[in-house]
Design goal:
The chain is of the alpha/beta class. The protein is built from 5 helices and 5 strands; from the N terminus they run H-E-H-E-H-E-H-E-E-H. It has a 5-stranded mixed sheet, with helices on both faces.
C-alpha cells in the first residue's frame, strides 16, 4: 500500500499536469477565435471570385478550360492523381491527425500512381515512417496558415496540373461544422465540374448589359481559376487549423476532467490512509496508557502488601 508521502507527491504531480492541460486549452481557444476572424475577413474576396466564375457560365455554359471537365462529361482522366493532405504539426488533438491520414490512405489505394503532397509535421512523420513516398512536403508550420502560403501550395499544384503531370488533384482536410463538430473532407480540387458554377434558371439573374471579356472569355476564366484555387486551399488550411484547435480543446478539457477525477480518488485514498494512521496512533497511545495504568495499579498492590 502506498504511503501518505507517495500519494501526496502523486497529487502534486497530477496538479502540475492539470495546470499544463488547462493552459493548452486556453491557448487553443485563443488561436481558434483568431483563425476564424482571419477566415471571415478574407472570405468575401474569394466568394466574389466564385461569383465571377458563375457569371462567366451564365453567359456561356460551353466555354472550354483546362481547369474544368470536358463538355462531353468525361470524368475518368488518364494520368497521375495528386493528393494534398493537411495535418497538424503535433499531436495532443484526439483523433484529428489520424482521421485525415486514414482518409488519404484510403483514397490513394484507389489509384495506381498517387502523388502525395503533405502539410504538417505529423503527416510528414507518419508517411515517412510507413515508407509512403511524398512527392513534395511543404516545409513550413501548419500553425500559421496564410494566403501567401496557400498561394505557394496552389502554384506548385497548378504548375504540375498545367504540365500534365497531374490529371486530378484532391485535397484532404478537416472541416469545422458548427461550433464543435468536425468532419474529414476529401474534395476534388481540380478539375472543376461545371455544375458547381452553373446557376439554375429559377435563380439566374437577368443580365441587362452584355459583358465583354478581353482578350477572350477562356483566358479570363483561366486567370480567375488560380486565385479561386488559392482561396479554396486557404480556406481548407484555416478550417483544418480551427478543427485542430477545437480537437485540442476537447482533448485538454477531457484531460482536465480526468485529472480532477484522479485527484478526487487520490484525496479520498490519502484521507483514508491518514485516518487509519491517526486511528492507529490513538489506539497505540490508548493501549500504552492502559498498560501504564495497570502497571501502576500492580505496583500499589505490591507496596501495600509489603507494608502489611
Amino acid at each position: 500500500m502506498a504511503t501518505t508521502k507517495e500519494i501526496k507527491n502523486r497529487i502534486g504531480s497530477v496538479r502540475d499536469t492539470q495546470k499544463i492541460t488547462n493552459a493548452m486549452y486556453l491557448i487553443a481557444s485563443t488561436k481558434l477565435r483568431k483563425a476564424k476572424s482571419e477566415l471571415d475577413s478574407t472570405r468575401p474576396y474569394f466568394e466574389a471570385l466564385r461569383g465571377e466564375i458563375k457569371r462567366i457560365f451564365r453567359i456561356s455554359e460551353e466555354v472550354e478550360s483546362r481547369y474544368f471537365y470536358p463538355i462531353t462529361g468525361e470524368h475518368e482522366l488518364p494520368g497521375s492523381y495528386g493528393y494534398l493532405v493537411i495535418t497538424a504539426d503535433k499531436g495532443l488533438a484526439g483523433a484529428y491527425n489520424q482521421n485525415a491520414i486514414k482518409e488519404a490512405v484510403r483514397l490513394m489505394k484507389d489509384h495506381e500512381d498517387p502523388k502525395l503532397f503533405v502539410v504538417g509535421e505529423y503527416g510528414r512523420h507518419y508517411f515517412q515512417s510507413h515508407n509512403i513516398p511524398i512527392e513534395k512536403s511543404f516545409l513550413y508550420t501548419a500553425q500559421n496558415p496564410s494566403v501567401h502560403r496557400a498561394r505557394e501550395i496552389a502554384g506548385v499544384l497548378l504548375d504540375l496540373f498545367d504540365q500534365g503531370k497531374l490529371s486530378k488533384i484532391f485535397i484532404i482536410y478537416t472541416d469545422l461544422k458548427g461550433a464543435v463538430e468536425t468532419k474529414v473532407c476529401s474534395t476534388r480540387l481540380l478539375p472543376f465540374h461545371r455544375a458547381q458554377f452553373i446557376v439554375p434558371d429559377s435563380q439566374e439573374k437577368k443580365v441587362k448589359i452584355p459583358f465583354e471579356f478581353v482578350p477572350s472569355i477562356e483566358q479570363v476564366l483561366d486567370n480567375i481559376v488560380p486565385s479561386y484555387v488559392t482561396g479554396f486551399i486557404y480556406s481548407a488550411l484555416i478550417s483544418s487549423f480551427c478543427s485542430e484547435q477545437n480537437a485540442r480543446m476537447s482533448a485538454m478539457d477531457s484531460a482536465n476532467r480526468n485529472a480532477q477525477d484522479l485527484l478526487d480518488q487520490l484525496s479520498v485514498q490519502y484521507n483514508h490512509i491518514r485516518q487509519s494512521a491517526i486511528t492507529q496512533e490513538i489506539t497505540e497511545v490508548s493501549s500504552g496508557a492502559k498498560s501504564m495504568k495497570r502497571k501502576a495499579g500492580k505496583r500499589k498492590e505490591v507496596q501495600g502488601f509489603d507494608h502489611r
